[in-house]
Design a protein that fits this description.
Nucleotidyltransferase, domain 5, 14 helices, 413 residues, binds magnesium ion, binds adenosine-5'-diphosphate, eight-stranded mixed beta sheet
Length: 413
């Protein structure tokens, strides 16, 4: 076999990650600790070690694939003799001619559902797992590991919430899963000024993004949320004003929250309908209740409680979806008017924060997706040296959007 040169020498933690034999391996740690370099190294090394194998190298979005993964991959390949590899641009595929059988690396961004499906592979390697990849997507990718005898799922990530699925998967139940943790300063190849600069950022940021500590949610938007204060089973009262707060989605979940507002302006979040890849007319049937909702696996029994839902609060970006929902609900004898949402993000969030602070919101424990999202809902991380823009991270925020539409539109009058 011709000489394969790796232009870099891995440091110890990168080697532990790169050579892990576990079925699932995660490299978690501070920015710049060398996670993605190790991830790409691992993918190439396994391609060479297992001729004829196929690996998928992915990131959540196309820009992440283009700006993070590809430059590193091509930096490695540039050190190899030209006749050892080919780049097939239209297929976004690298062919490695390092053994008798050629190996392949498929470059994929995973935001697009169709890119996640497809034929079996030997390996899947994902960068920045904590950015956008849900556990369902991860499992969907795992299900493609059907080729060859040695299958590997590898990923890198920054530290995040201890409520996240990644934490639960790799910290709580590590069977056949390997976790490697590093701090920024573990990477001996970083320029000292860079390391110094990273350590001079705000403390919470350093702990999470430099030291790689989990559960540091300085960016947690609803930090005042507390299970024992805000979550309680309650009996809905038909004298409250009742609304459906809706965030439309197809690929992303469609969310409808049944929300009651009492005379004092206390918000009661009674039930949720939360499902993706279902058309609006089918949602209408599920929302109307009567039988077990196929998506949520329980009956949305609001009509048995005779809750007078009058209006739907919804995102005006999609009025067509509202009119369709309204029309279809009519077929189930549900008549609702419209309350187009005030959509200002920071205003809506402030209303919700105030409700939490004043303990004027009660969430029924059956709203499990709402409760998952409220724990994970956080501000987009600030980038050192750039002015901070206060925007939520934009993932796992569908029930949160529906709730803030409600509070900004009708919850505070
Ligand atoms: N083994 C190594 N040898 C030399 N430089 C490295 C090595 N690993 C990483 N680097 C350098 O460190 C920087 C950060 O690595 P990267 O993998 O992008 O970090 P992370 O993904 O953890 O944020 C890269 O720009 C690269 O130049
Ligand atoms: Mg990286």
């Amino acid at each position: 076999m011709p000489d394969i040169v790796y232009p870099i020498q891995l440091y110890d933690k990168q080697v532990f990650f790169g050579r892990s034999g576990a079925r699932e391996t995660l490299f978690a740690g501070g920015v710049g600790c060398g996670k993605t370099y190790a991830l790409v190294w691992r993918e190439l090394m396994l391609c060479v070690k297992h001729p004829g194998s196929i690996g998928m190298l992915g990131a959540y979005t196309y820009p992440m694939l283009r700006d993070i993964l590809k430059p590193i991959l091509f930096q490695y390949l540039a050190a190899w003799p030209d006749d050892l590899w080919e780049y097939h641009k239209t297929d976004e595929m690298i062919v490695l001619k390092t053994g008798r059988n050629h190996s392949q690396i498929w470059l994929r961004h995973l935001e697009d559902e169709t890119k996640r499906r497809g034929p079996s592979v030997d390996r899947v390697s994902i960068t920045e797992l904590g950015t956008g990849i849900t556990e369902q997507v991860y499992m969907q990718l795992m299900a493609r590991l059907r080729r060859g005898t040695r299958q590997h799922m590898s990923a890198d990530t920054n530290a995040g919430s201890t409520e996240s699925w990644i934490y639960k998967r790799f910290f709580d139940k590590p069977e056949d899963r390997r976790l490697i943790i590093a701090r920024t300063k573990d990477n001996p190849y970083l320029p000292p000024e860079y390391v110094k600069d990273m350590y001079s950022q705000p403390e919470a940021w350093v702990r999470r993004y430099v030291e790689g500590e989990w559960g540091i949610m300085e960016g947690h938007i609803y930090s005042e949320f507390q299970r024992d204060l805000h979550v309680k089973a309650f009996t809905p009262d038909r004298d409250w004003r009742w609304f459906l707060a809706v965030d439309f989605g197809f690929r992303n979940p469609f969310v409808a929250l049944w929300i009651g507002l009492d005379k004092e302006g206390h918000t009661y979040i009674w039930d949720e309908h939360y499902a993706s890849k279902i058309t609006v007319d089918v949602h209408a049937g599920m929302i109307s209740g009567g039988s077990t909702c196929q998506a949520c696996n329980r009956v949305h029994d609001w009509r048995e409680h005779a809750l007078p839902v009058r209006n739907v609060v919804f995102d005006t970006a999609d009025p067509g979806a509202f009119f369709l929902l309204q029309k279809k609900l009519k077929e189930y004898n549900v008549y609702v008017g419209s309350s187009p949402a005030r959509k200002d993000v920071s205003l809506g969030i402030q209303f919700c924060q105030t409700k939490l602070h004043q303990k004027r919101v009660t969430i029924h424990p059956k709203c499990v997706n709402f409760l998952r999202e409220i724990n994970l809902y956080e501000w987009a991380p600030a980038i050192p040296g750039r002015p901070e823009k206060e925007m939520p991270r934009g993932v796992d925020d569908h029930a949160m959007d529906a709730w803030r539409y409600f509070e900004a539109t009708v919850g505070n009058i």
